[in-house]
Amino acid sequence: QVQLVESGGGLVQAGGSLRLSCAASGLTFRRYAMGWFRQAPGKEREFIASINWSGGTTSYTDSAKGRFTISRDNAKNTVYLQMNSLKPEDTAVYYCAAKYYSANYPPQSGYEYWGQGTQVTVSS
User: Fold this and answer.
1) How many CB atoms lie under 10 A from the CB of residue 81?
2) What is the dihedral of CA 14, 60, 78, 105, to 10 degrees?
3) Whole-number mean pLDDT of the chain?
4) CA–CA separation, 75 vs 78, rounded Å?
5) Cα–Cα distances in Å, from 83 out to 15, 63, 69, 87?
6) Helix (H, G, I), strand (E, B) or coil at 89
7) Which of 4, 58, 81, 105 is most buried by its number of CB atoms within 10 A?
8) DSSP letters along 36-60, please?
């Protein structure tokens, strides 16, 4: 049974930083692309960042470029999202996701497995 468990969310002031983690189990982690998504109240879930199986290629939405960094540790079956210069509009539930995917460029959609999410709240 595949499980993705996010952690690291919380309340932070604007301009601050948070590091989200997502621990995966029940899958061969190195064969999966990993992604981070978020959903704000009243809005659809949106793509934030993804990383290919090796960690060598990443993809970001425009709002995340330059502020967020996705990384992974295949030895620990964990993917991270470092978020800097946080803004109130970053407030959302953040989800990690996994997709069996061997191509180099990581996908921005079509993920198969999802975590339960972790709340990030940025105060102004």
Assistant:
1) 27
2) -170
3) 97
4) 8
5) 10, 11, 7, 10
6) helix
7) 81
8) EEEE-TTS--EEEEEE-TTSS-EEE
88, two tokens: 């109130």
**Torsion of the alpha carbons at 67, 5, 93 and 82, rounded to the nearest 10:** -10
Token pair recorded at residue 66? 């330059």
Backbone angle region of 62, left / alpha / beta, with phi > 0 → left and psi within -120 to 50 → alpha: alpha
Q: How many CB atoms lie within 10 A of CB 75?
A: 8
Quick one: tokens of 30?
A: 């190195």
- The string of DSSP letters for 3-23 reads EEEEE--EEEETT--EEEEEE
Helical (H) or strand (E) element with 78: strand 78-83
User: Maximum Cα–Cα distance for the chain, whole Å?
Assistant: 41
Q: What is the pLDDT of residues 63-122, one digit of tens each?
A: 999 999 999 999 999 999 999 999 999 999 999 999 999 888 899 999 999 999 999 999
